[in-house]
Structure formats: C-alpha cells, structure tokens
C-alpha cells in the first residue's frame, strides 16, 4: 500500500523537556493507524506535528512523499478532543459555516447521512447529547472531503453504546477509502478499529505492529484471572502471578497447569477466567501502568 503520511526522526523540545525523541513511522493509505500512549508520553505532541499545528524541533513529516506546504491544512480533517461551536446555531448552520471556510467541500447531504445527523439538523448545538455532538464534530472534520483524517480521542466521555455506535461511523469512513489516524484511551477501541498501532512512552516508540501481532509477540497465549479474594486468607500468590485491580493474573503457555497451581492453593475457582491477552494487558507489560486519562 502507498504511504500517505510519514514521520522521520521527529523531535520536539520544550524548555527542559524533550517531549518527542526521534519518532519515525509510516501511515499507509486507506488504513486506520493508532497512536497510543499515556498522557505525557509525547502522543499528543506528535499528533499536533502531524496535523501541522506545531513544528518539530528536528525531523521531517512527508505527506504523499512531499513536504508539508501551505495547502496541507485544506487537505486534511481534524476532530479535536474539544471543539468550540458557535452559540445559537443549529447543526445544519454549523455544517454550512464550516463548509464555507474551504474551497473544496464534501456533498453535505451525503455527509449528513454518513454521520447520522438527519434527525438533529434543526437542533441548537448547545442542546446536543455527547454522542450527537461527536457525530457533528466528525462531520465537520470531513466537511472538506479530506483523504487523511485525524481523530483525537473522539469517544472520550461517551457511554458504551454511543461509543460503539461511533466506531461504526469510523468504519464507514474507512470504507470510503479515507486514511484515519486515531488516538484513544480505550484499548478495545484500538483493537476493533486499528490496522496498525504505535505505542509511545517517554517520547519514544516502545512497540509497533498490528494489534494481534503485538499481543502474540509480547505475551503468552493465555491469561488466567482470579479475584484475589478467591484465595484463602493469608495465602501468598504464586511467583508466576501478578496482582492487578483486585485480581491475580497468570500469563502462561499452559492454562491447565496454571489452574492446577491455583487448585493446589485451595482457591475458590468459581470466578476463574481463562482468556486471550488483550492490548490493555500488553500496555501494562510494556509500560508498567495503564493508560492514564
């Protein structure tokens, strides 16, 4: 697949801080690329450089093989974490206003259908629910018909149902051949949507690959989970286990042996689960902590 946007040895320094320290990666056309990391890892700073909002201290960003120029911002779409909307505007008026800022625009009727805005077009933007507001902001990000779209934590604060509905919108955007660069704090979201993931921490890339390949590369094929209260009082957890969020977890190639080990401790196995490790498990293994909001 052709490369849509490329970061080459990106560095960004602030007084006393090197926020980004030599990051390089490629985003292929038509893919969903996940940029993950805890706050303070350099993820947001990297994203701002890719968007052309911030200039790198050193390194280079190439868009379709060429350097970023003055027309770049008209060629991309951005859904920020927070976007201020004009008061006393309807959804339709907001779309029309943002479309007027660009020389080239998408078909507004198709955009309304894509983002499921038909029933709220005449609603004041101040009276939108969280999910409705995010759907409008996605439409605004697409209003100039960009081929490259940046989505910066687009489902933060949404309830589980609204979040999953929004995933469907992103999948529809991808079916139209758009390239999506996504940041998120939800590992299930990244696993569902992303074709390729880069994890950054302390300004550097610590892992990269497809979600499944990353998990398979770094973790055992099974994780055995049991609530810590299921162990008899005073029992020391096995040396092969880790304690997290009220559970003990054993990553293993042999789940039966791990279960027998817990049986030998006379643990109550009614709440025992044997699962395939996921991206959240991977993140903990690589960074020593969960994603910080």
**CATH architecture level-2 label of the largest domain:** 3-Layer(aba) Sandwich
Helical/strand content category: alpha/beta
Total tally of structural domains:
2
- The largest sheet has its strands arranged as 6-7-8-3-9-10
- SSE order in H/E notation? EEEHEEHEHHHEHEHEEHEEEHEH
What brief labels describe this structure?
alpha/beta, four-stranded antiparallel β-sheet, 28% strand, 31% helix, single chain
Task: Give the SSE map.
Elements: E1 3-14, E2 17-28, E3 32-36, H1 43-50, E4 58-63, E5 66-67, H2 72-75, E6 76-79, H3 91-99, H4 108-114, H5 130-141, E7 148-152, H6 160-175, E8 179-183, H7 187-193, E9 196-201, E10 204-209, H8 211-218, E11 222-227, E12 241-244, E13 247-252, H9 255-264, E14 273-275, H10 279-287
Parallel strand pairs: 3-8, 3-9, 6-7, 7-8
Antiparallel strand pairs: 1-2, 1-4, 4-5, 9-10, 11-13, 11-14, 12-13
Helix pairs in contact: 5-6, 8-10
Notes on the structure:
The protein is an alpha/beta fold and 293 residues long. It has 2 domains: 3-215, P-loop containing nucleotide triphosphate hydrolases (Rossmann fold), CATH 3.40.50.300; 220-276, no CATH class. It has 10 helices and 14 strands. It has a 6-stranded mixed β-sheet with strand order 6-7-8-3-9-10. It has a 4-stranded antiparallel β-sheet with strand order 2-1-4-5, covered by helices on one side. α8 (211-218) crosses α10. The longest helix has 16 residues, at 160-175. The radius of gyration is 22 Å and the shape is globular. The chain starts with a strand and ends in a 6-residue tail after the last helix. 33% of the residues are buried.
């Amino acid at each position: 697949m052709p490369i849509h946007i490329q970061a080459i040895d990106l560095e960004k320094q602030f007084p006393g801080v090197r926020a980004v320290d030599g990051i390089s990666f490629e985003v292929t056309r038509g893919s969903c690329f996940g940029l993950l990391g805890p706050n303070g890892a350099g993820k947001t700073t990297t994203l701002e450089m890719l968007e052309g909002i911030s200039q790198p201290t050193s390194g280079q960003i190439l868009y379709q093989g060429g350097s970023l120029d003055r027309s770049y911002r008209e060629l991309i779409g951005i859904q920020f974490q927070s976007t201020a909307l004009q008061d006393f505007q309807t959804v339709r008026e907001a779309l029309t206003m943002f479309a007027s800022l660009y020389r080239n625009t998408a078909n507004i009727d198709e955009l309304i259908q894509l983002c499921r805005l038909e029933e709220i077009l005449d609603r004041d933007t101040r009276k939108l629910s969280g999910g409705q507001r995010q759907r409008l902001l996605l439409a605004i990000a697409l209003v100039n018909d960009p081929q490259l779209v940046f989505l910066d934590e687009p489902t933060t604060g949404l309830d589980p149902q609204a979040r999953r509905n929004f995933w469907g919108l992103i999948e529809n955007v991808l079916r139209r051949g758009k390239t999506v660069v996504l940041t998120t704090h939800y590992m299930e979201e990244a696993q569902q949507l992303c074709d390729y993931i880069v994890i950054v921490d302390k300004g550097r890339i610590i892992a990269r690959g497809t979600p499944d390949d990353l998990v398979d590369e770094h973790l055992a094929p099974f994780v055995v989970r049991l609530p810590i209260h299921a162990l008899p009082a005073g029992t020391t957890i096995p040396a092969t286990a880790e304690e997290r969020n009220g559970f003990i977890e054993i990553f293993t190639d042999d789940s039966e042996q791990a279960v027998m080990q817990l049986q030998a401790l006379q643990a109550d196995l009614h709440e025992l689960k044997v699962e395939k490790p996921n991206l959240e498990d991977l993140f903990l293994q690589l960074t020593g902590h969960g994603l910080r909001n």
